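RECORD TYPE: inverse folding
INPUT: structure tokens
STRUCTURE:
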């Protein structure tokens, strides 16, 4: 099922997502919904809170792969960031902030671990786009949004655009 994307102003985007204790049929159904939603929009990554699930998981397409046949959607459940190295200051956007792109400082490379769909822990080393995407999606699980990490002056300049997005929030839910 394709879910609607939650936009800035929606309460779920500011909540710390819950740890997934058991990967059961319900969680697997939500994973499938995340994948269908991401693929329907041909986007890079999507965190569970962005579709209203306050759960610690996100998915990401490995768009850094040079061979298009090797591009696949990767799933990360209960991710934990372990090490950071280097720094990059590059533009980011977010499905929950349509039309807004700003530079954000992120580690150039990271090490992290996450569970797969079978609950097995795997360790990853990520650089550049992969590392940036993981840090961005991980922040969603913590209730942190990319606008929280941009220059305060830039954020002040975005106030009108942010207010316009948030004004569509009704009863704490904003699906635009």
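DESIGNED SEQUENCE:
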């Amino acid at each position: 099922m394709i879910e609607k994307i939650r936009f800035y102003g929606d309460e779920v985007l500011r909540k710390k997502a819950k740890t997934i204790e058991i990967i059961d049929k319900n969680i697997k159904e939500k994973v499938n919904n995340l994948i269908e939603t991401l693929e329907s929009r041909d986007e890079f990554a999507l965190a569970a809170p962005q579709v209203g699930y306050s759960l610690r998981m996100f998915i990401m397409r490995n768009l850094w792969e040079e061979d298009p046949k090797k591009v696949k959607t990767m799933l990360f459940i209960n991710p934990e960031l372990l090490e950071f190295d280097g720094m990059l200051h590059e533009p980011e956007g977010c499905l929950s902030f349509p039309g807004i792109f700003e530079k954000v400082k992120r580690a150039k490379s990271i090490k992290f671990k996450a569970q797969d769909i079978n609950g097995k822990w795997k360790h990853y080393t990520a650089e550049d786009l992969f590392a940036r995407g993981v840090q961005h999606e991980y922040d969603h699980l913590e209730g942190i949004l990319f606008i929280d990490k941009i220059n305060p002056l830039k954020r002040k300049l975005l106030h009108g655009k942010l207010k316009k997005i948030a004004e569509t929030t009704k009863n704490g839910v904003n699906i635009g």
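NOTES: The chain has a mean pLDDT of 95.
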